[in-house]
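TICKET: design request
STATUS: open
ATTACHED STRUCTURE:
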């Protein structure tokens, strides 16, 4: 419950519109509900999936702008 108090700040993860299959918001399982509320609707910078997707997006952006 303490985790839930740390979130609900009105910020949604930018990847929620195009989530990966392992994103919490795609899971229809109550085991992921707390993580979905904490990360997807608030502290997404702390989500390991967000970090991976951000790094991947940045890498893709870099190679597009600076092709070898
Ligand atoms: S917070 Fe994490 S799990 Fe949720 S949509 Fe963003 S990347 Fe996916």
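STATUS: resolved
RESOLUTION: sequence designed for all positions
ATTACHED SEQUENCE:
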């Amino acid at each position: 419950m303490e985790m839930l108090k740390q979130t609900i700040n009105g910020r949604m993860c930018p990847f929620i519109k195009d989530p990966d299959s392992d994103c919490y918001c795609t899971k229809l399982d109550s085991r992921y509900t707390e993580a979905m509320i904490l990360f997807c609707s608030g502290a997404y910078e702390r989500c390991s999936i967000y970090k991976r997707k951000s790094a991947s997006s940045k890498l893709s952006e870099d190679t597009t702008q600076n092709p070898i």
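CLOSING REMARK: Residues 2-65 form one domain. DSSP finds three helices and no strands in the chain.
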